[in-house]
Design brief:
By secondary structure, this protein is of the alpha/beta class. It is 13% helix and 27% strand. Helix 1 links the parallel strand 1 (5-8) and strand 2.
């Protein structure tokens, strides 16, 4: 039986996860947020108004869910994951009942989130703390690195390799077999037809480099 869950955050992404937690039949024990969360999804949960209160809990009795989203920068999600892992907490995988996840993956990391209608096909490697938002499609034999975020309706064609901390914007498309380097940002609606170097923003149809993100 899955232990009670602690949801980190109460914003938009966290609200979607709270509903998914409910649909999966898990128990949401507490929500960690600087302001008290409102609405029916949170009314049965304890409010913890800071990470310090959650980090004092017994790691053997609870699991955590990363409720921080991404609007292009996955750094906050990674920092929160690293903080709670350093204290011994385990991140629960959350898979919406309508998501289709192949039983023949090469790897499925910790803290994986697959939201409504997303698809992951055979032979894929999914790292830790990865989000596939609503209706995202990850085709066969793709690799997605740790802390990466694939936004709503984005499509990765077969055998793409995405390194750590990449954000792939909503409705973006990656052609088959492409490589996307660490920390890259694929803008919303882009069509990527060539490899993307690390710490680079690409945008457009076809996608072209806009600027270097390493500065």
């Amino acid at each position: 039986m899955t232990p009670p869950l602690i949801l980190l955050g109460s914003g938009g992404h966290a609200s979607v996860l709270a509903e998914c937690i409910q649909l999966c039949g898990f128990s949401l024990y507490a929500v960690v947020s600087p302001t008290k969360p409102e609405g029916p999804l949170f009314e049965q949960s304890v409010w913890l108004n800071g990470d310090a209160n959650a980090l004092d809990l017994d790691v053997r009795q609870y699991r955590v869910v990363n409720g921080v989203g991404s609007i292009g920068d996955t750094g906050k999600r990674k920092a929160l994951f690293d903080l709670y892992k350093s204290k011994g907490f385990y991140f629960q995988n959350i898979v919406h009942p309508s998501a289709v996840i192949s039983p023949h993956l090469r790897n499925l990391g910790e803290g994986f989130q697959a939201l409504s209608g997303c698809i992951v096909n055979t032979g894929c490697h999914i790292g830790d703390n990865v989000v596939l938002n609503s209706r995202a499609v990850v085709e066969h034999h793709c690799r997605i690195g740790n802390h990466s975020f694939v936004a709503s309706s984005a499509t990765l064609c077969g055998s793409c390799e995405v390194e750590d901390q990449v954000h792939i914007g909503a409705a973006a498309v990656l052609n088959q077999g492409l490589f996307v380097g660490h920390g890259a940002l694929i803008a919303t609606g882009s069509v990527v037809i060539r490899n993307v170097t690390a710490k680079t923003l690409v945008m457009g149809v076809p996608a072209r480099k806009q600027r270097d993100l390493s500065c």
